[in-house]
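so im writing up the methods section and need the Major facilitator superfamily MFS_1 record in one place, dumping it here so i stop losing it
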Amino acid sequence: TVAHDFGVARGAFLFLASFVLSFGLVKGALNLVAGGLADRFGRKPVLLAGWLVAIPIPLLIYFAPNWWWIVAANA
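--- predicted struct ---
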């Protein structure tokens, strides 16, 4: 399992919470920033820039050496 591969104890709430919390906080903050940028430059350029930034994320998650890399890549 993924938990075993990364040495995460079964039922470790902290690890799940860190994953969800990092995603939620960063997503909320970047939505505010993206809204301002979209007002200034238009929606399409902001969406394209976001997609370009997001392209390597699955690779970072796939090749993550430990759980905290996954949390960081998710953020």
